[in-house]
Amino acid sequence: MSHLLRVAGFTATLLASSAVFGSVAFAEEKDAETWRLFVADHTLPVVRAIDLSTGKETGKFDLEGYAALSLSDSGRTVFAVQGDENIVHAISTGIVLSDHGEHRDIEINEPKLISTVIKGQKPGHVVSHGDQVAVFYDRETRFDLVSEEALAEGDAVLKPFDTIAAHHGVAVPVGKHFLVSVPNTEVAVKEGDLPPRLGLRVVDADGKQVGEVATCTGLHGEASSARLVAFGCEEGVLVARPGGIDGPKLEMLAYGKDLPKGKVSTLLGGKSMQFFLGNYGEDRIVLVDPDSAEEAYRLIELPTRRVDFALDPADPRSAYVLTEDGKLHLVDVVKGEIVKSETVTEPYSKDGHWRDPRPRLAVADGQIAVTDPRKSLVRVVDGDNLKEVRTIAVEGQPFAIVAAGGSGAVH
C-alpha cells in the first residue's frame, strides 16, 4: 500500500509541475526502418537518392563530374569523389543511428548536399574510421583529415598531412594514428606518371612517422574488420593490429607456396565476424582469416571473371559475387564455397576499357541492389534465393551504388 501511495504522490508531483511549467509530453517509442540507395550515373554529374521500399527518388544532387561513391562507417555520409574534377562532395544520407545499449535509435531526415566542398588534385580514396575521415589526393603530397560530425554541422576544418610524394595511395585513421601508403621515390617514372607503392608506414597525430616502413609492394586495396585493417600487397596481405602507445602493429600474411601466382588488390572487411574477402586475379576470390595459423587463405574459383562483389553486413556468413556472364553467386564464407547462383543481368564483358559501364552491387535489408546501366535499372534481388523481386527505373546509366539505412526506435 505504501508503495502505491509513493507512486501516486510522484504522479501528483509531476502533474503539479505541469501546471506551473506548462504541459509535459511523454514521447512514446516506436520502431522504424528505412533504407536508401545512392546511385551515381556513369557519365552524368549526378547522384540520386532512392527509397528502397518504394523505388521513389527522394533526392537528386548535381555535381561537377562523374563520381565514385564511398559510404562512411556511420552510414550518415556518402562521399561523391570526382577525381577528374579535383573535388569531393559530401551528401547527408538523412539517416542517423545511435546506440543506447539495449536498443538503438534512428533519426530520419531528408537527404541533402552538405555545404562543405573538399578540393584537391585528383582525390582518390576516402576512408572513414569512427568520426575521422581521410581524403587522399593522388596528385598532391598530402591527405586531408576531417571530422564527419563537423561536416554534418557545416563547420568542417580540414587538417593536412604529408604523404612524401604524389602517388595513388591511401590513408587510414586508426585511433590517434594513421596508416599511410609509401611511394617508391627511387624509381624513374615517365613524365605524368606516378611512382609505385612500396609499403606502409604508421604516422602519429602530429604527422611524424612511428617505426619503420613495412614492405607492401604495389599496395592496393584496403578494408577494416573488427579492430584490424588489411592491405593488398604483392607479397601477401599486410594486417595492422591494435598496438600500444606506438600505434598499430604491422604483420604480413604471406601468400605461401600453396596458392597459385596472383595477388589481392581489392578487399572487403567482415562486420560481424573478423575476416576479409579479396580478389585473387580476375576469376578467383579469396577468404582471408588473419588469425588462422593453418589456413589464412581459402581460394574460391569463379565460373567467369568477377565484375563486382559485396558482403552482407547483417548476415555475417553471406557474400555476393557478380560475374561477367550476368550471374549472381551467393558465397558461404564459413564453408568457403558458392552455394547458389542465378542469372540477374545480361552478360557484361570485362574486356574493353576498365571504366566501361558495368553493374555494381549494394546490400540492404537482406536484398541486393544491382545496377544495370544498359537497361537504366536497379534490379532488387532477394538475398536468400537470388531471385529478382522488382526493378527500379533510373534515368541515364545507373552505375556506382551504396546503401544506407537500418532500424531503430523513434522518439
TrEMBL record:
Ordered alphabetically, the record's keywords are: Signal
Species of provenance = Rhizobium wenxiniae
- Name of the featured protein: Uncharacterized protein
Domain of life of the native organism: Bacteria
Xref: SUPFAM superfamilies: Quinoprotein alcohol dehydrogenase-like
Q: Which NCBIfam families does the entry link to?
A: AztD (NF038015)
Leader sequence segment: 1-27
